[in-house]
Amino acid sequence: MVLLICVLVIFAADSALIFVQAEPVISFSVSGRNVSFTGAGFLPTDTTCYVSSPTSSVILSSACVVNGGTGTPYGGFSIGNVLSGDYVIQVTGNYGDFAQAIIQVDGGAPQFSQSHLAGYQAGSSVSIQVSGLLPTDTTCQLSSPSSPNVIIPGSAACVILAGGAAYGGFTVGNVLSGEYVIRVTGNQGDFAQTVLTVD
């Protein structure tokens, strides 16, 4: 009788372990125009990071730090005076790894520093200040949609400073007592209004 013995031999292939790195991600927490963020999945070798926007200058100021060896960046940034819309925010680690996310900005409505201009008479000089105009505005205009005569022709002046701020003034015309709408309009079509009371 022939005894047949089968031996099963398993050879272990000599292979290197393959590590799959999770794709970096970031998430936002918004409070007004201040945004905080946390990230995950960044390289554990990252020691520094920075925040940017590849599509615009939506970021006014920013800070970013990394918990060493964790691949977890966190920080925050302030939103500048930009048009309403969607903006790409990117957090980049010092080894070139990065994550992007979209933040939606609702531009604040332009507004006068005073909600009501009161106590003026014909011939009075009125100073105005407006904030929140579009950063792309380069000129502005003072007018009154309710009564062109409340502003003496040629007396209105308006200038734009950096950051969407406008300053100017005008002389009140010879009009009846009452309330008149005063408007400041940027050259991009954005505007702010307030009420002028003439005694």
Helix and strand layout, with pairings?
Elements (H helix, E strand, L loop, with lengths): L24 E7 L2 E7 L8 E4 L6 E9 L4 E8 L5 E9 L4 E8 L5 E2 L3 E5 L4 E7 L8 E4 L13 E5 L3 E7 L6 E9 L4 E8 L1
Parallel strand pairs: 9-15
Antiparallel strand pairs: 1-2, 2-5, 3-6, 4-5, 6-7, 8-10, 10-13, 11-14, 12-13, 14-15
* Shape assignment: rod-shaped
The total count of helices amounts to: 0
The appropriate CATH architecture of the largest domain is Sandwich
Number of strands: 15
Instruction: Please give the CATH class of the largest domain.
Output: Mainly Beta
Strand content: over 45%
Q: Any idea of the CATH topology of the largest domain?
A: Immunoglobulin-like
SSE-based structural type: mainly beta
Euclidean distance between termini CA atoms: 128 Å
**Fourth CATH level, the homologous superfamily of the largest domain:** Immunoglobulins
**Helix-strand pattern:** EEEEEEEEEEEEEEE
Question: Would you kindly provide a brief summary of this structure?
Answer:
By secondary structure, this protein is mainly β. The protein contains no helices and 15 strands. It folds into 2 domains: 25-105, Immunoglobulin-like (Sandwich); 111-198, Immunoglobulin-like, CATH 2.60.40.
Can you characterise this structure?
The chain is mostly beta strands and 199 residues long. The protein has two domains: 25-105, Immunoglobulin-like (Sandwich); 111-198, Immunoglobulins (Immunoglobulin-like). It has strands spanning 25-31, 34-40, 49-52, 59-67, 72-79, 85-93, 98-105, 111-112, 116-120, 125-131, 140-143, 157-161, 165-171, 178-186, 191-198. The chain is rod-shaped, with a radius of gyration of 30 Å. Mean pLDDT is 85; it is low at 1-15. β6 and β7 (98-105) form a beta hairpin. It starts with 24 loop residues before the first strand and ends with a strand. It is 0% helix and 50% strand.
